[in-house]
Design goal:
homodimer, 142 residues, 3-stranded antiparallel sheet, 5 helices, 3 strands, 7% strand, flat, DNA-binding
DNA sequence: ATAATACTTGACGTTTACGTAAACGTCAAC
DNA sequence: GTTGACGTTTACGTAAACGTCAAGTATTAT
């Protein structure tokens, strides 16, 4: 037991380790903490990040990539974490989930459309390029 | 001839019409013009939008939804519009396209992952909700 | 002719997501 | 025992993407 994915995984990280791994600045990580997205433990003053904190950071960055604001990310992460005592909260959460799902589906469609158009443009580009190279065999590659 | 999708489609739009249709403010549309994303004709002072302008606006909004900055959107639209006289420009554009494609693929993966996790969360929610309703048959629906 | 309506151009304000600089603590290595 | 490397807080700065007046023009309705 005590696999690397154990909840009690004792592995910890420093702020710079995480910064390097995820290609963000330490400033960014502290900023996320200010915003309530991360709550690392402390050893004296210095922040100590657990595997769980690492996952949280990963989720924040993924959220950003799909177009969520930090506030929205926090909202979702809070919902995830909280043991919701009330039915109202659960309903609210289901609403939020549906809403988010719709947005993501829409985004998927947008991306597909965009990729198709990019393909078209690329084809046109390559065609033009070929034509140009035929017409002026002395290519202008400096 | 002269189908509704004809390039010489004479249909025009006012700024408020477009604003309503796309659920943005007129301020936003003018802002996009300031940024060089739209170049409507003018009738005296008032802006007159053609079907082509409408498509441009649509592209801008889709671009935003997939996480592009307005500058990036303009860059792409410029590339699209320009009859690129130089091979260098075409190469540059192909680079940009590849880069963008990679980003979109990554986003698709992010979205899939996120949707999967949302499904998990929702299942947990529903389960809890069911459990709670069993334990306290007098549901608190006010 | 006047009032209402729609459109225009500034210009400043706001929010988000950090960057950047100052000024200081801490601990290992030389 | 001081020099780096790394950490900290506090605070101001900034770019993007609009929002929000203010004040003027142009057209339409009555």
């Amino acid at each position: 037991m005590n696999s690397p994915m154990d909840a009690s995984d004792p592995t910890t990280y420093t702020i710079t380790e995480l910064a390097k791994e995820f290609r963000v600045t330490t400033r960014t990580i502290r900023f996320y903490e200010d915003k309530g997205l991360l709550k690392p433990a402390r050893n004296g003053l210095t922040r100590v990040y657990t595997a769980r904190d690492r996952v949280h950071l990963k989720l924040v960055l993924r959220g950003k990539r799909i177009g969520l604001s930090l506030d929205e990310v926090r909202e979702i992460m809070d919902m995830y974490d909280s043991a919701p005592g009330e039915i109202g909260q659960l309903d609210y959460m289901l609403d939020k989930l549906a809403e988010r799902r719709a947005m993501l589906h829409r985004q998927q469609q947008d991306i597909e459309l965009t990729l198709k158009e990019l393909n078209k443009i690329e084809a046109q580009c390559r065609q033009r390029l070929a034509t140009m190279l035929k017409q002026t065999p002395q290519s202008q590659v400096s």
